[in-house]
């Protein structure tokens, strides 16, 4: 029996139906793992579900009394991890490829890899936003990342796997980003600051969406405006902290030249 090399960190607040789908999909994962849940005061039966946990993989639960910052919750959890690797994961994910975690873990056989995931962008503008056409992902509806994977400047927090020792050396997650926005870009740039690479792997998954995006707020204009304001604050902090690394581009130099020429002279493509 192989021992676990990786612990999955899942912050939760209600959304029991999504959590069930996520945990069910993890049952086919071929890589041994542990789960560490941070429950932020769920009231929808999530805590009862966790106490009766029906799945065979090891589970540990940290309970908070309120729905505090996701970043603060993760900072409370990751020091409790006792495996070499940890993987921050959203509970609104559904894993399709049983080898998804093995792919993320085995990438670290290359000592130049600092963090792996399933969604990211190859370029970031001076202002801290992604260049949309360079986003690559493994979404099951149509993965855009080339197999087996591609380097990116930043990974998305939907799934981020890295060595625990590396996160400790960085000092954990920067809670100055507020409730949620921006810490994934910050962590990615901190990894790259150490001369390591961030990489998106080809491992199809579904992302059901948990209402963390402005466009999903729909009929709640006040919440949408608050979210826009929080995103602005996060970008301001990102620029102040990482302006020396922006803009950023993970593409090889030859690829940059080739794509620039193609954009300028499309008839020669």
Question: Please, could you describe this protein's structure?
Answer:
- With 269 residues, the protein is of the alpha/beta class.
- The protein has a single domain, classed as Spore Coat Polysaccharide Biosynthesis Protein SpsA, Chain A (Alpha-Beta Complex).
- The chain is built from eight helices and 15 strands.
- The strands form four sheets. It has an eight-stranded mixed sheet with strand order 3-2-1-4-12-6-13-10. The protein has a three-stranded antiparallel sheet with strand order 9-7-11. The protein has a two-stranded antiparallel ribbon with strand order 5-14.
- It starts with 5 loop residues before the first strand and ends in a 5-residue tail after the last helix.
In short:
With 269 residues, the chain is α/β, with parallel strands linked by helices.
Q: Supply the CATH superfamily name.
A: Spore Coat Polysaccharide Biosynthesis Protein SpsA, Chain A
Reported by name, the CATH topology is: Spore Coat Polysaccharide Biosynthesis Protein SpsA, Chain A
CATH architecture: Alpha-Beta Complex
Basic shape: globular
Write down how many β-strands occur, each being a DSSP E stretch of 2 or more residues: 15
What does the radius of gyration come to?
19 Å
CATH C-level label: Alpha Beta
Number of helices, where a helix is a run of at least 4 consecutive DSSP H or I residues: 8
């Amino acid at each position: 029996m192989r021992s676990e090399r990786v612990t999955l960190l899942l912050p939760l607040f209600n959304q029991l139906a999504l959590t069930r789908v996520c945990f069910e999909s993890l049952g086919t994962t071929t890589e041994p793992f542990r789960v560490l849940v941070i429950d932020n005061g769920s009231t929808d039966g999530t805590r009862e579900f966790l106490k009766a946990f029906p799945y065979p993989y090891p589970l540990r639960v940290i309970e908070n009394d309120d729905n505090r910052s996701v970043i603060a919750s993760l900072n409370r959890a990751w020091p409790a991890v006792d495996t070499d690797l940890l993987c921050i994961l959203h509970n609104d994910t559904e894993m399709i490829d049983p080898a998804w975690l093995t792919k993320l873990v085995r990438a670290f056989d290359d000592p130049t890899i600092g963090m792996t995931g399933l969604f990211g962008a190859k370029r970031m503008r001076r202002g801290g936003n992604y260049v949309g056409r360079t986003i690559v992902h493994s979404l099951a509806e149509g993965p855009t990342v080339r197999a087996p994977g591609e380097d990116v400047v930043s990974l998305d927090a939907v799934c981020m796997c890295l060595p625990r020792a590396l996160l400790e050396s960085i000092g954990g997650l920067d809670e100055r980003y507020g409730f949620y926005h921006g810490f994934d870009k910050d962590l990615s740039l901190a990894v790259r600051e150490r001369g390591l690479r961030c990489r998106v792997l080809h491992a199809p998954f579904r992302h059901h969406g948990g209402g963390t995006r402005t466009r999903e707020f729909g009929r709640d204009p006040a919440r949408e405006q608050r979210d826009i304001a929080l995103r602005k604050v996060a970008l301001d902090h990102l620029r102040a902290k990482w302006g020396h690394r922006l803009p950023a581009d993970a593409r090889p130099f030859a690829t940059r030249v080739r794509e620039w020429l193609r954009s300028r002279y499309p008839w020669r493509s």
